[in-house]
Amino acid sequence: MRKVPTTVITGFLGAGKTTLVRHLMENNQGRRIALIVNEFGDVGVDGDLLASCGIEGCADDDIIELANGCLCCTVADEFLPTMQALLDRPNPPDHILIETSGLALPKPLVKAFHWPEIRSRVTVDGVLAVVDAAAVAAGRFADTPEQMAQPDHDNPLEEVFEDQLACADMVLLNKSDLLDAAQLDTTHGELTAKLRPGVRVIRTSRSAIDPLIALGLSAAAEDDLAARPSHHDTEDGHDHDDFESFAITLAEVADPAALEARLSQVIALHDILRLKGFLAVSGKPARHVVQAVGTRIERWFDRPWQAGEDRLSRLVVIGEKGLDRAAIEAALLA
Question: Is there a contact between 120 and 1 (Cβ–Cβ < 8 Å)?
C-alpha cells in the first residue's frame, strides 16, 4: 500500500508558514492536498485566512483547524483522530500538509507517525522549517547579555528555534528581501552551522518556492529520529509555560493607520512576539487583516464580511510569560 506523503511545516511565530502553505496549495499541480493547521491561541486566524482565500480545488473540508494548543502536546487527543479521518475518506488526499504553531516542537509530532493506527498508511515526506531572516539577523533568538550573566539560564525562544532547525530536512530562509547582501550571507552562514549535514537552505521572499523542490523529499523522517536531536529528548513531556496568548476584541476601527501606530508602540513597549487578527473598519465592506512580527506590521483587506457574520475587530497577542494584559488591553482600547 502506498503511504500518503505528509509535509510538516515548522517555524517560529511569524516566519511565513501560512504564506508557504497557501503558495503550495495554490500550486498543487492537480494533487488533492489536505491541510491541518494548528494555532497556539484559542482564536484561529491562519486557518480562517486560508479558508477564505478561494484556492481552486480546495474544498472547505480540506482545511482542518486545531486551535488552543500545540500539536506536539495533543498528539493522541487531536492529531491521530484527525489523520485517521483524512485517511479513511473515500478519496483520501494525495498529500497532507501540517502547519504547526510557531511554538510547537516538530519532533514529538514526527514521532506520532510510528503510532500503529497510521504508521502503515502515511509517512513524513519532509520537515520544512521556515525562518524569518530579519529576526535571526536582529538576534531575536540569541541570548541577551543579561541572560548570559545568569547561571543555568534558559532561553525559551532559542530552545524552540533550535528544536525546529534540528528536525528540519529543508530550511526556507524567508523574508530574505529584508536584508542586504552582506547581512543575508552572514545570516545564511550562521544558520547553516546549526543544521545537520545535508540539510539544504533555500532563500525565499514571501515563502515562494517551487513545490517540486519543497514536496517529494521522501525523507521518511519518522525513521530518522535519532539524527534529529531535541532539547527535550530526556524529558517525558514538555509544556509551553514560557509563553502565553490572549485575544482582544475592539470596536469598529475608524482609522487603521492610527491603530497601526498605536500597535507599534504597544508591541515595542511590551516585547510582544506576535500579533495578528482582523479589523472591522468603519464604512468598509471588507475585513481588514493585521499581521505583526515584532514591530513589523502588515495589513490589508482580504474579503467582504459575510452575511450574518459579526463585524468584530479581534486581535491575538502572543508573547513570553508575564505579558501585562491589562496594560496592553487598556492601550489598544483607548
Answer: yes
Question: How many whole angstroms separate alpha carbon 20 and alpha carbon 8?
Answer: 12
How does DSSP assign 52-67, residue by residue?
A: TS--TT--GGGEEEE-
Choice among 23-27, 121-125, 162-166, 287-291 with the minimum mean pLDDT = 23-27
* Whole-number Å distance between alpha carbons of 255 and 316: 19
**Beta bridge pairs of residue 98:** 8, 36
**What's the average model confidence in pLDDT over 267-276?**
96
Only one residue has cell 500545540, namely 70
Give the integer Cα–Cα distance in Å for 143 and 313.
Answer: 35
CATH architecture of 4-227: 3-Layer(aba) Sandwich (3.40)
Q: Report whether 231 contacts 162 (CB < 8 A).
A: yes
Q: Which residue type sits at 277?
A: G
Ordered by start, the domain boundaries in the chain are 4-227, 243-333
Q: Provide the CATH number for the domain formed by 243-333 in this structure.
A: 3.30.1220.10
- In this structure, how many other beta carbons lie within 10 angstroms of the beta carbon of residue 282? 12
- Closest listed residue to residue 39, CA positions, set 102, 117, 111, 127: 102
Tell me what percent of the residues of the chain surpass a pLDDT of 70.
Answer: 85
| pLDDT tens profile 92-110 | 999 999 999 898 899 989 9
Rg (CA), the chain: 20
Please report where in the chains the cell 481588514 appears, as a residue. Answer: 288
Cα 240 from Cα 189, distance rounded (Å): 30
pLDDT digits (tens, 9 = 90+) for 131-141: 999 999 999 99
Helices 256-270 and 325-333, packing angle to 10 deg: 160
